Amino acid sequence: MKAAVLYGKHDLRIEDLPIPAKRDGYRLVKVAYCGICGTDVHLYEGDEGSVKLIPGTVPGHELSGTLVDSGEAVTVDPNYFCGKCNSCLSGNPHYCENIFNTGVTVNGGFAEYVLAHESQIHKIPRQVPLDDASFSEPVSCCLHGADLTDLKMSDRVLITGAGTIGLIMLQICKSAGVSHLAVSEPVQSKRNKALSLGADSVFDSNVITADKLKKCNFNKVIECSGNLNAVKTALSCCANTGTVMLFGLTRPDDTLAIKPFDLFKRELTIKASYINPSTIATAVRMIADGTVRVSPLVSEIISLDELPLYLADNKGRLKNGKILVKL
Asked: What DSSP letter does each residue of 101-112 carry, written as one string?
């Protein structure tokens, strides 16, 4: 089978690998689509994602396809949880002591076939196209972040960053019925897309200041870009007694100076969100019923052979929206 193998920083090779052999408790998936995630870019650049890449692994964790033995349409939760360790039994499976991560520690979706544990496989309703189904994992991650943010109908929410993650988070917040939903984003076309997907207002982050945003009284700020300046803005502009969700993935060595006295005076709550425990089934339902519209987020569909060129040019092509690899 054709696959993209990542050996280290900037070393992604298209190779011919054996189709994974059958194993008890596992199903073979013929991959249809796999999305390029910001985490894939981090790994390509030699950084750590949710976990460290094992060199020589096929990346790609946002995948959909069909089961080889039945032809059923499925998506794959990239995270395997054992269900038996202390973390799993205490309700924190995403910190499983025996976790493995499809596309990071074991071969993933940038290949024609993937072998996945039965517990990772989620069937897709017939009305959901396979390209839409490949968004199940990022939607599930956003759901976990939204759950931790504890959204209420009275909330005034600001999302910083209108990339794929920001626009998914926007739609989840909209479905929660928050009273006002705003987006801060430097790119005009993305601000327009945010409005089309339900934002009540948008701000040009190249122009608007944190002081002006603070006057808008946003009591929930969800940072979705992973940009350190946006993180600083999120912390500065949140209303007193509010919550800042640091959702976007920064680089591992990024640091931030925080004045504890300032947090004390403002009674801020700062949260973060790690992967997607027990949310992927809900994500599939929200895509199927149209609560989260993912097709408007796709900017391009490419072949596997084009993947190395796109990752090498991540500051260009990948900035316009979600890119799907069609297998």
From this structure: EBTTTB--SSBS
